[in-house]
Write a structure and sequence with these properties.
Length: 206
């Protein structure tokens, strides 16, 4: 993997756009996986049960191959693709945008729909910060509690992220289990340092 960082949005955001009586409401979310997308979509449908359409697009991962669009009853290509186009124009990933439409009684036509969904999605992305995040490789470390200082020094030195930490008593001795995210830019150095630490079990998390 050559990438050392990627871009995503920092926080959820909401934006509105009105066109000839129809109201469009866009919700942008940072998401980690498809399960989180399904949860967000379910929440929006419960919040807007009377909306005419719940259109969306998302892109996940670093390779750009995990994505999905939905027109949710709008003419093909008039909603989901314009929404995805805004995500891609900002070169962000791990992002979901749902655009809810309340029909105002006037047909907008396909060009009008494309403009409306594109504009609403763009507004949502404009109201939240785009941030750079490091590409992380995930590892589980298991070690004696007496080695905590050594492990923590390594974590701090190489800007690793502690994702989970569980000290537990095993056979009357205190052991620790820790999941860390190692930045791509420091991967080789961290792997070497971990190998130098005595009795630290290291397992890659796929």
């Amino acid at each position: 993997m050559n990438k050392t960082c990627y871009y995503t949005i920092e926080n959820p955001s909401v934006a509105e756009f009105k066109e000839r009586g129809s109201k469009f409401i866009a919700y942008a979310y940072p998401i980690k996986d498809v399960g989180e997308f399904k949860l967000r979509l379910s929440e929006i449908k419960k919040e807007h049960p009377k909306a005419t359409h719940h259109c969306f697009a998302y892109r996940l991962g670093l390779d750009g191959n995990t994505y999905r669009v939905s027109d949710d009853g709008e003419p093909s290509g008039s909603a989901g693709k314009p929404i995805l186009g805004q995500i891609d124009s900002k070169q962000v990933t791990d992002v979901l945008i749902i655009v809810v439409r309340y029909f105002g009684g006037t047909q907008l036509g396909i060009p009008g729909l494309i403009t409306a969904y594109k504009t609403t999605a763009a507004f949502a992305l404009q109201t939240t910060a785009i941030i750079q995040k490091p590409v992380l490789h995930h590892y589980n470390l298991q070690f004696d509690y007496t080695q905590m200082n050594e492990v923590m020094m390594l974590v701090k030195q190489f800007d690793c992220v502690i994702e989970k930490q569980d000290p537990e008593s095993i056979r009357e001795q205190l052991f620790c289990s820790m999941n860390i995210g190692v930045p791509q830019s420091w991967l080789q150095e961290v792997e070497n340092k971990l190998n130098d630490l005595r009795a630290v079990e290291v397992k890659a998390i796929v």
